[in-house]
Amino acid sequence: MYDRIQRFSLEELTEIHDASIHLLETVGIRFDDDEAVDLFKLHGFKTNGKTVFFTEKNIRRALDTAPSHFKLIARDITKNVDIGGDDFALAPGYGASFVSSNGHPRRYATLADYQKFCQLVQTSDVINMNGFLMVSPRDVPAKTAHLEMLYSNIVYCDKPFMASPLSREAARDAINLLAIMWGGLEELKKMTVTASLITPLSPFRYTTEMAGSMIELARHNQACVLGALLMAGSSGPTNLAGMLAQQNAEILAGVALTQLANPGAPVIVGGTPTILDMRTGCLAMGSPEVVKLTSATIQLAKFYNLPARAGCSNTDAHLPDAQAGFESALTLMTAIRNGTNFVLHAAGILGSYAAMSFEKFLIDEELCRMVIESLKPIIIDKESIDTDFIEEVGIGGDYLAQTKTLEQCRTAFFLPNLVNL
Amino acid sequence: MYDRIQRFSLEELTEIHDASIHLLETVGIRFDDDEAVDLFKLHGFKTNGKTVFFTEKNIRRALDTAPSHFKLIARDITKNVDIGGDDFALAPGYGASFVSSNGHPRRYATLADYQKFCQLVQTSDVINMNGFLMVSPRDVPAKTAHLEMLYSNIVYCDKPFMASPLSREAARDAINLLAIMWGGLEELKKMTVTASLITPLSPFRYTTEMAGSMIELARHNQACVLGALLMAGSSGPTNLAGMLAQQNAEILAGVALTQLANPGAPVIVGGTPTILDMRTGCLAMGSPEVVKLTSATIQLAKFYNLPARAGCSNTDAHLPDAQAGFESALTLMTAIRNGTNFVLHAAGILGSYAAMSFEKFLIDEELCRMVIESLKPIIIDKESIDTDFIEEVGIGGDYLAQTKTLEQCRTAFFLPNLVNL
Fold this sequence. Notes:
2 copies of one chain form a homodimer. Helix content of chain A is 43%, strand content 15%. Chain A contains 15 helices and 19 strands. In chain A, the strands form 5 sheets. Chain A has a 6-stranded parallel sheet.
């Protein structure tokens, strides 16, 4: 089929891969975590202080054990979510400090807001997993906020959820909570019930928080969502080709660490590569470059036969307006159409990650439903075409008056929940 | 590349084609125009009163002479627009009765509104051709409104435009005006300077206005945009496969008439197939079925190697809100990505065709720019990846402080005109 979006050739994907390997060999990745560096040393990686260097062979070995498909188990097992291939998760927005809500100016988020978002996920017919840090609650101590959020995830929602990767200790806390739910640490290790967001500090660095969390989560068979957040022009080069090579190097290094910690531990790879608005220094989330990079990043994940992550429904708009609508639609449609397996920020996010909005959550749910519906195939065969019926109605006829139309009127079409007609 | 949108197989396209031919053979198409029926008779078509029947051979012959690519000549020849293959036109909204504008309730449109839209097209960096009947002016006599609109098209804008197909006489008036501009009727016949919207009255009928216009325009080498407007559940069956077959039959009959009138006359084929909202009886323009049908319709046009038409940026929203944003984005992105060659309603339309909005025009322009930019490829080679530069910045480095970033800061990224960052 004709398609105007860029489709990388095997040569182009290999060119990016080779550049990533070159960067991993020459620049390396700094891991600010002693155990991570020790683990690399133990497996014969070349290191220099906290910097670890990777060869093609090291990366190939990691790619050999990382699964291309896995299942996220939910407390209600009818809500398990498959990740990989044709299957994908839609998770809500992540990391917002503020809540934006009709009639209220932007305000700091509370734990009650967090819990409301848990309830919105629980009652959603399309958002199939719960997040973490959907908003950052300001009314609970920072030290225990992750426990409050995890507890809320468990009590307000029985879908799979994201766990706390905010520090090694926070990851351990999550694992201990999960162990209580799932019958002990050994039982937990047999299944994947969470996926947690691991983000390199670009360029070329994993903090002790991220590296430590990665090791803890991988060891307990919990999925790491390796999502680089490169901003072209600040944490990455302005040329998008170079940006893809750097992002890919950082992600491959993360995959390698998870597979050393626990060969076969599930990972999801990708990121939300963005650009810097050069006039203001602001993050430009809704830009067309993000659409391009989203498509490119998914193609790279597929090249490695790993589940692909994309960040979607993003916008630089501060209100759920037309800009929010079309920017969200462009990334979401592209990512889902091109085969993403994990959509972060699928619902609720506004203002370049600054705020979560209840209204936008509902709007994005409708958008998600519509994107999914629009990708369902039309069955084409003699029976579905049914020329007999069309002949019967004939020239100038009225289909609305036909019994067949009446019979199909409740099921034939997608029924929107929110949009007006 | 992995793609979740439906890609019809050659077998499926042939199944639709065969069903269309079957319908053309058995039901036929009614042409309420004597000259059209006479023309078919003259070429040996089977007729019954005003109903014309078509064979596979009749259709094949028409498809043999219809061009796959042509050029729309503008008064300013630097603004010529190629149609076909990779090339496409973006035309504004069409057929609205109302104007919706900030601070004003929906009101009937005037000629001054029409002229403002002409000016918006003229100054647009992305809408590359002017429309016709963008709004229907209520302050001029209906009998001469087409002359006022055509005259406005000519004096306010030097891009190619759509001509008046409202009746045979209106088409002739347009041709006479064009002849004045282009040096006489014989000169005009040597080039295509307009594309006009021809719509069957589904099911299976062309009115005398449409059939007469088609003959006049084709004879003078002006393009006909054959756009069926089937509504599943009212003018077409609820099953989308049947709808595609019926739409295709109606369009192929139109192509045949243009090619009898003037073999080689340019046509653009497709339509804006929609569904009926079964709860309200309203047209549902922004529905996911429209996205599916848009993709399917373009694939059928490509199957026939003809320029493809799609109606995009459509929405059922009555204000330029989030719904308007995402509904417009879903059809526009799908159509342009999948290879449309003529986008009607690319800017300004609201409320299921009811109104044109100046605000939505500007929003849609930004959306068009962003879709086009997001489909531009990233060059992937050693030079563009530039690992030397990435190595130089290194672990924890800052790209913003680099000379190379400064050098590229004005040109590296798409600069939005309207959206906030």
